[in-house]
Structures are given as C-alpha cells and as structure tokens.
Design a protein that fits this description.
The chain is an all-alpha fold. It is built from 7 helices and no strands. α2 runs antiparallel to α3 (35-47), α4 (60-71) packs parallel to α6 and α6 packs antiparallel against α7. The relative contact order is 0.07.
Length: 172
C-alpha cells in the first residue's frame, strides 16, 4: 500500500488533495485517532506545502476567541454581537493590512480586551452583592491582572508599530 506522500507524486488536482485533507482531518479530529491517519495527514501536509492546507483550520488564537465568547454568561444573540464587535475591533486596529507580527499582536490585544471587558462585567455583578473581603480581594486581583495584560498587549503593539515605521523609513 502506498503512503500519502508517495501518492502525492502522482499528478492530481488541488481539489482532490483538499478533499483528501478534509477526510483525513475529520478522521484525526477525535480523542484517539488511528496513528496511520495522523501520519497520512502529516505526509499530506508536507507533500503539498504549496497548497497551505493548514490555513483552513482555525488558529489557536481564533479558537481562543470563540471559547472566550462561548463561555461568557450571556444569551446567544449577545454573544453573536460580541463576535462581530471583536472582528470589527481587529479590523479597526488595521489587522487586514498589517504585517504578520502586527496581526498576531492585534489578535492578542483584541482577545485581552475581550477578556478584560467580560471580567469587568462579572466584577460589576459581584460587587453589587454583599461579599466578603476575601472575595472582593480575589476579584480585584483578577481585574488588575486582566487590565495589566491588556495594557501590555497594547503597549507592545504600539512599540512594534513604531519600530516598524522607523525601520522602514530608514531604508527608503
């Protein structure tokens, strides 16, 4: 029996390769996939690098966004609006036109903003109740940590953008 890598040497259409990728991805997206399916998927990815098949799978960052929104305490309609707001925020920050490093930082900053916003919401609900000092301190620490992460993500994005502009101006 020929391996996927060997069969990839036989001329085939990109459409067939993508169909094989989709099939193998379905077979390997489970708790205990068959080792030969994982190996076949790996060989297919390496054998057809130019097709960039891996791009059809959501990035870990995109998955993190989905998980954060889905785990939020809100009704489905509000969650759907939050997803669109997050996408618009990334667009407003210039994600579509930005170099790859900036795209990653924009995605991270947007995720930090989302986490901070959701934590602020939960914090507001908790603080309007009668709580113990320990619970109040716990929520203050969580909120402060989320604020710090968001601030650092924005500062990093700003520094990289400034560095990038200074570097590109130097070489004009």
């Amino acid at each position: 029996m020929a391996t996927v890598h060997e069969t990839s040497l036989i001329p085939g259409t990109a459409k067939q390769v993508r169909a094989k990728f989709k099939d193998l991805l379905a077979k390997t997206n489970k708790e205990r996939p068959r080792p030969q399916d994982v190996k076949a998927l790996s060989e297919l990815l390496y054998g057809h690098k130019s097709l960039e098949l891996w791009r059809t799978v959501s990035s870990a960052g995109a998955m993190a966004e989905i998980v954060v929104v889905e785990n939020a305490s809100a009704v489905p309609g509000v969650k759907e609006c939050w997803k669109h707001r997050l996408q618009q925020l990334k667009k407003d920050l210039g994600c579509d036109e930005a170099p790859l490093l900036e795209q990653l930082l924009i995605q991270h900053a947007a995720l930090c903003w989302l986490n901070l916003s959701l934590l602020e919401l939960r914090y507001s609900y908790v603080m309007k109740q009668s709580i113990t000092l320990a619970v109040g301190l716990y929520w203050e620490k969580r909120l402060t940590a989320a604020q710090r992460r968001f601030t650092r993500s924005v500062e990093t994005l700003t520094r990289v953008r400034k560095w990038s502009r200074n570097t590109s101006q130097r070489y004009r």
